[in-house]
């Protein structure tokens, strides 16, 4: 199994939101610009770009309470200070919602969103807006804001359509 995990093109980590990374593959360590032995024990907060921490933790809290997976495009910070854009998918393990739930993380590097670029990033940005709108719609539903949820789902659909046609 470790050989298969080592060949995957995604970074993989297993951890506990309120504690530390419990296990990871070499690709995840490379994304973070660290040795694998240095990744074990890190808190996600410690490797997440400061401006992305609040959003990341909000989605972690929501996933811990609902058991639902989520996807974020965010930045990690390497020890050198370099920000690395990733698309990360988080899954609550054992299907047991809990504020401190264990998680499985699949992460891959992506190009940094750049609104001024004309080199194909329009589709990436539209896809990002679609995913972000879906995530916000989930938060609106939990806050019992049905009109806001509906508008966000419409925005997500429009952005998703734009991503497919760009």
Briefly, what is this?
With 166 residues, this protein is of the alpha+beta class. It contains seven helices and five strands; from the N terminus they run αββααααβββαα.
Q: Describe it for me?
A:
This protein is α+β, with helices and mostly antiparallel strands and 166 residues long. It folds into two domains: 1-110, PAS domain (Beta-Lactamase), CATH 3.30.450; 113-166. The chain contains seven helices and five strands. A five-stranded antiparallel beta sheet has the order 2-1-5-4-3. α6 (121-142) packs antiparallel against α7. The longest helix is centred in the last third of the chain and has 22 residues, at 121-142. The protein is globular and about 45 Å long. 22% of the residues are buried. The model is unreliable at 116-120 (pLDDT under 50).
